[in-house]
């Protein structure tokens, strides 16, 4: 099983990014997927999740700004991040059961 996260980069405050998590080697459509992030010097924290049926859950600080979606035909989960803030700077990881992607760095800076 492999999870490949991508889409990170440098963005100004108020900007947007879309992260992708592509899965292989697993029956993707039946699995929930979560996004976590780890900022420098901090513990990894939950950001968002999406169930196999498309129900979503968000950490309070990203509600209304981030949207998690999935395309089962592409074995991919997305995290659309809008109105980005400095404090959103972190390495973002996707997680499915015990599997983790390699992380993609999001830097919010002017």
Describe this structure in words.
The protein is an all-beta fold and 110 residues long. It has no helices and eleven strands. The strands form two sheets. Strands 2, 4, 5, 6, 9, 10 and 11 form a seven-stranded mixed beta sheet that branches. A four-stranded antiparallel beta sheet has the order 1-3-8-7, with no helix packed on it. It is globular. The model has no long low-confidence stretch (mean pLDDT 96).
- Number of helices, where a helix is a run of at least 4 consecutive DSSP H or I residues: 0
Helix % is under 10%
Structural class: mainly beta
End-to-end separation in angstroms reads 37 Å
> What is the number of strand segments?
11
User: What's the SSE pattern?
Assistant: EEEEEEEEEEE
- The global form is globular
Overall pLDDT, averaged? 96
Spans of at least 5 consecutive residues whose pLDDT stays below 50 are none
Question: Mind telling me the C-alpha Rg?
Answer: 13 Å
Largest sheet: 7 strands, mixed
Q: Which strand-content bin applies to the residues?
A: over 45%
Outline the secondary-structure elements:
Blueprint: E1 2-6, E2 9-11, E3 17-24, E4 33-38, E5 45-50, E6 56-58, E7 66-71, E8 76-81, E9 90-96, E10 99-100, E11 104-108
Parallel strand pairs: 2-11
Antiparallel strand pairs: 1-3, 3-8, 4-5, 4-9, 5-6, 7-8, 9-10, 9-11
In short:
By secondary structure, the chain is an all-beta fold. The chain contains no helices and eleven strands.
């Amino acid at each position: 099983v492999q999870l490949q996260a991508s889409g990170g980069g440098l963005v100004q405050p108020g900007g947007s990014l879309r992260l992708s998590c592509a899965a292989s080697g697993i029956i993707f459509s039946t699995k929930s997927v979560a996004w976590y992030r780890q900022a420098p010097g901090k513990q990894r924290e939950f950001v968002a999740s999406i169930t196999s049926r498309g129900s979503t859950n968000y950490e309070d600080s990203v509600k209304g700004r981030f949207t998690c979606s999935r395309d089962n035909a592409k074995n991919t989960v997305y995290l659309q991040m809008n109105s980005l803030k400095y404090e959103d700077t972190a390495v973002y990881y996707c997680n499915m059961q015990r599997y983790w992607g390699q992380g993609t760095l999001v830097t919010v800076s002017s």
